[in-house]
Structure formats: C-alpha cells, structure tokens
C-alpha cells in the first residue's frame, strides 16, 4: 500500500489562510497581528540592517543612526575570553573546542557508553590545566581573569553534569523506606529550593570558607560550582521524583517478581522510564538553570552576560547598550532553543511506539 502524498506548499498555504480567517474572531486576531507586524517590522529592519554599521568606529555608528554591530565585532572576543591574557587566549580556545566537542558527542546515543564517561573524566583536569596553567610550562592565570562564554560554559556544563546524578540520589532518597535517608534528602531539597540561587552564592562566598580547615582556601570559581551544583540537584530532584511517582505500581512489582535487587530494579527498569517521561520538565529546568549562570557576578565571577556589560564601559564605545543586550539575548536564545529542539528529538526517540 502506497504512502499518502504529502500536501504541497500551496495546499498548506491555503489551509493556513483558511485557519487564520475562519470566523470573525480569527479574522480580528489575524488583522491585529498583521497590523502589529506592519508597525514594528519596517523600522526594526531599517535600524538593524539598512542603517546598521557593521564595521567602523563609534563616531561612524552615531552618524549612521542605526544599529552599531561594529561594537559587537570589536568586543566579540572579549565576550568570549574576558580578561584572559591576549597572548594566552589559545588555551581557553582549545578548552572550548574540547568542551563543545564532548557536548556534541553526548547528544548522539551512539556515543552513550563508558568511553564517553571516561572522556569527560579525562577532559575535566585537562581543561583545568589548560585554563589555570602553572604546569607543563604554561603561564599561571588566576581565575579572576577568566570570563565570558568560557566561564558560562564551564559553570553550566559541569554544574548541570555534577548536579544531575546528585539529583537522582536525592529523589531516590526522598522516596526511601529508610527514615534517616528520607529525612536528610527532604531537608536538603526543601532548604535549597526555599532560597534563591543568589543567597547560595553569597553563602558559598562568605560562609563556606569558614567551615574549611585553617590554611585551606577554596577558589571562588570552585565555590560557585559547589553552590550551583547543589542548587541544580535540589531542583532536578523534584522533577525526577515526579517521574518516579508517575510509574505504575506494576513496574515495581514486576521487577521484584524477577528477583532484581533495589539498585538493579532502579537502574534497569524504573529510572529509564521515569527519566524518559520527564524529559520536557528536565529540559525546562535545565534552561532556567542555564540562564541563572548570570547571577555568579555577585561573588566576582564574570560570565558571558556580565563581560558583555562591562564592555559597555569602554569610553571609546559608549552609548550602545541595545546592541549588546540584543546580541546577548540572541546567544542565549540560540543555546536554549537548541536544548529545546534536542529534548523534542529525545521525546520522539524514547516513545514506546518508536522503540
């Protein structure tokens, strides 16, 4: 039996037009949307494209009267590397290549094996050595000079990666039959979820050093990662717990019937299903946590957004905040949209009918 023919572009266009202008309510809404687009798009296009300055000075930008994309061109690498020494920028460049390569490989199910985990474990100290230096003839670079997309990538990727398994353990602990484990997990989740991330960052900056033995200090970036990982784990734990509670009781009983231990049951039967049905909620939480990396400025760590804002203080390029914020919004949108589309792909792949 032949597959039905897909509708042509003309047929889809006609169906869309009929849907938009079907009835007085739809006609009114469509007319309002068209009027809004006619009012907004021409001046926006003129500012962003026609009258924009793509290469030049601040004076030329002001004379043209449009968007000054020359400012973004001038400050692009500063937004990527921050205050990292110019002659050593190849090191964060290599680090970003390693990080992006591992993230891309992790999105393909064909690479989901023990070697990918080994690659991540090996890459972590390698990237730290590249960024910090001090060994193998590399010039030491203090973390206060790290910034831009480099810092955002480190905090987001490793904060989420370390927080995810901890979230699973907290979710399992909150549903445990062991009273102390259940109470401990509940207290951690509720206490962390009950305060904003900015308060945890302040505690990591001020309180955490007080609990360390005398003479031992913890770098500010490490403190950020500790606070961010705990915050991620607490929020993700409730998402995972929702998936565990949504599992039919028969799945638990079937796993018990075949003689699986608790951890075998969770690893082979329950968790794969619970995690797959909560993919939309997980990605929604991931996106929110990714955007929360902008709060690390409160303890002096300059992420991508803060680095771009600091570039506005250059006396040679004063007066172009709109372009900086539009560029930052575009970068965050692209990254968050990529996560959203990947989550949709995972949802399709893990549907029972597709399996």
Automatic annotation (TrEMBL):
Checking Pfam families in the record gives: BPD_transp_1
Tell me where the transmembrane regions lie: 21-41, 90-108, 115-139, 145-173, 194-212, 224-244, 294-312, 324-342
Q: Which UniProt keywords apply?
A: Cell membrane, Membrane, Transmembrane, Transmembrane helix, Transport
Q: Where is the ABC transmembrane type-1 domain?
A: 145-343
| Membrane topology of this protein | Multi-pass membrane protein
Statement: the UniProt record of this protein carries the keyword Transmembrane: yes
Superkingdom of this protein's organism? Bacteria
Q: Does the keyword Transmembrane apply?
A: yes
Task: Kindly list the places in or outside the cell where this protein is found, as annotated in its UniProt entry.
Answer: Cell inner membrane; Cell membrane
Sequence similarity: Belongs to the binding-protein-dependent transport system permease family. HisMQ subfamily.
* Record's protein name: Amino acid ABC transporter permease
Q: What is the lineage of its organism?
A: Bacteria, Pseudomonadati, Pseudomonadota, Alphaproteobacteria, Acetobacterales
